[in-house]
Every structure is written in structure tokens, then in C-alpha cells.
Amino acid sequence: MSKRVLITGGAGFIGSNLSLKLLESGYSITVLDNLSPQIHAEDSVLYNSIKDKVRFIKGTVLSYSDWKEALEGVEIVVHYAAETGTGQSMYEIEKYTDVNIKGTSIFLDILANEKHSVKKMIIASSRSIYGEGKYKCVKDGIVYPNERTDENMLKGDFNVKCPVCQENVELLATDEDSKIHPSSIYGVTKQVQEQMFMIMGKSLKIPAVALRYQNVYGAGQSLSNPYTGILSIFSTRIKNNNDINIFEDGKESRDFVYIDDVVDATILAIEKDEANGEVFNVGLGKAIDVLTVANTLIHAYSSSSKVTISGNYRLGDIRDNYADLSKIRTKLGFKPKVSFEQGIEKFTAWVEQQDIVEDNYEKSINEMKEKGLYK
Fold first, then answer.
1. Which of 186, 158, 184 is nearest to 289 (CA)?
2. Which of 41, 104, 322, 344 could covalently link to 287 via disulfide, CB atoms 3.0 to 4.6 Å apart?
């Protein structure tokens, strides 16, 4: 297996952790990153952790020349560089489609039309491509519900409905064969990225792997970005002695997977031929509701912040989703090592050592209100 890897967005949360782990195993790493201020503070801990250990190129995936420079001598590409955040994607449509889709197209255009040394490529996909995931209806069996209606949610009914009979349905683990029907612009862009990688990988005979990450968290993630990652958003609010507003009824859930497990799964995808041409879920395989997350963090920080279940909601948000890990366990031997409880302990211990950053959450909510996306 080649040891020369390009990680786009490699100064970000997942990318920097992957870089450090690959360096330990003797890989040579090139990082292409624009050091976006939304993610990186002036003194970026993530960037500083890798800057003297990798070949670093400050650039953008929207630049053909930056891609060309970054790809010199590279044999494996892990493509993380992207705009992230479901809510923000619903009013920054051009930005999300430009960076996520056009940026990916430039890379694939180079592979199709110019000399290169790429022998394998990994795309960071997302659980968001599933929209509302896999459910069971008492009457109609396995179903893949449509997005919830504004009409129902205005009445306080946040439950997912069967697309056939409109009755409430039971959540199941979402497997890789589940219906792809994203409910946000972000989800659409990740779906397109994944499809582009898999189609061109097959066409060019370059093994491609898509990793559908669930909600990744852990020590090192941005505490100042109010647009993505409820663990960091809630932590920043708590450390600023602010209260927490829980959307919907607090029972909406996500699959929270610790960064160490995500890195391990990604390395398996890089190193194992069994991954070639395949898509895999990467998660903990367990649904944790948002109210539990908030209360767990408040307890961990010994905080007096109050939790309010407001009934507010954001258009484009899904109700639930957690990963069926059968495929990645069977084909690659992946099994998460860090439980939710262990991960929260690691994450909050790290947060306690950080400076308290400005809480910009209300600003992000006001932006959504202005766009009519927050009710």
C-alpha cells in the first residue's frame, strides 16, 4: 500500500486527527486547506498540531492550480474539504454547491484528463444523504418516510409518518441499501459528491470508497462554530453560562461517533482492498436523543444552565438516524471502541482545558429566522 496521501480539509477536525494517526504509521501527508475562519480560530489548535509535520498547502478546492500542486506525487486522496452544516446550507446554496460539488468536479476532471499518480480515493460522505432513515410501519412494513411537514410540526407533532398510511412509524438502524433522499442542500451535495466519486472511480479504474459518517465528535473539534455539532454548540453555551434551547420535543436523536473510531474506520478503508468500490456507514450504531445529550453535558460540567424544550424546529432537520454497522463490521472488521459515555468523558475533559470562546449560537438562529427556516 502506498504511503503518500493527500487529505483535503486536512487541517479540520477529522482531517487533522487522521493526519496524525497516519503519520504515526509512516505515511507521508499532504494537506490542502483554506483555514476557513468559521472553523479555525486565529491560533488554530488543529492546524498547529500538523503544520510542521505535513506538506501543507493553503489553498482551495475551487482552484485547479491548488489541486494540481496538492496532487503531485500523491497516490491516495481523502477528500474532506467541504462546507458543512444542514441549517446553513438552506440559505447559502451557491456556496455549498460550489465548494462541495464544483470542488469535487475539479479533482475528478484532473484525474480524467491529466497525468497523475492517484491509485485510490476516499470520499467523506454523510448520514444526511439518507434524509429520514429506515423505519417500520405496523401496516406497511419497512418504509423510508418523506420529510416531516411544516403543518404537523407547527402543531407539535414531530413524529415521522409512514409515507403510505401516514401513521407513526418505529425507527430502525439505517443500512447502506436504504433509500437515498436527503432533506437539506448539504445532504444533496454529499450525495452528489459520493456518486461522482463512485462513478468516476469505476470509469477510471481507480478504487473509490465512500464513508457515510454519522455525527462525529471529540477532543479538538471547533467550539466556536455555531452551525454544526450540537456537542460543541451546547458545550460553548454552558461554558458561557447560557441556557440551552432544545428543538422539537427533545426526543430527536442522532448517532454520535467518537473521532478515534472515525479515524480507525477511515484507515481501514484506505488500507483494505475489501473496501474498494464500496460505501460504508461509520457510526456508533446507537441513537442518543438530544435531551439526553444536553443533560449529560450539564452534569459533566457541573453547570446550573437550564434546559428548555421549546417546540422550535428547523426546516431541513431530520428526526432520527442511526447506523447499521453490519457491512463495515463484516467487510472491514470495524467495531467502535468508544462508547457514548466514554466519549463524553473524554470530550468534556478536553473542553474543561480550553479557553471559553464567544457563543455565536443566537446569531446563527437569527440568520435562520430571517430566512424563514426556523419556526
1. 158
2. 322
270: CB partners within 8 A, 6+ apart: 1, 5, 22, 76, 78, 120, 122, 209
For 368, other C-beta atoms within 10 Å of its C-beta total 20
Residues 284, 257 contacting (CB under 8 angstroms):
yes
Residue 312 CB neighbour total at 10 angstroms: 16
Torsion 190-193-196-198 (CA) sign: negative
Q: Is 91 known to be catalytic?
A: no
- pLDDT band of residue 367 (cuts 50, 70, 90) is confident
Nearest to residue 112, comparing CAs of 194, 200, 192, 198? 200
**Residue 210: band (very low, low, confident or very high) from pLDDT cuts 50, 70, 90:** very high
Q: Looking at the domain 4-131+175-224+254-286+319-340, which fold is it?
A: Rossmann fold (3.40.50)
List Cα–Cα distances, 108 to 5, 63, 165, in angstroms: 16, 13, 43
Contact in structure between 173 and 285 (CB atoms under 8 Å) = yes
In tens, the pLDDT along 340-354 reads 999 999 999 999 998
Give the active site residue among 186, 213, 227, 258: 186
Q: Domain limits of the chain?
A: 4-131+175-224+254-286+319-340, 135-172
Cell numbers that stand for 60 in this block: 482551495
> Average pLDDT, stretch 59-75?
98
Query: 208 and 201 in contact (C-beta within 8 Å)?
Result: yes
Q: What band does 54 get if pLDDT is binned at 50, 70 and 90?
A: very high
- 282 sits in which H/E element: strand 279-282
Look at residues 192, 293, 225, 217 and name the one whose alpha carbon lies nearest to residue 88.
225
C-alpha count within 13 angstroms, C-beta hemisphere, residue 248:
21
Residue whose C-alpha cell reads 501543507 in the numeric block: 56
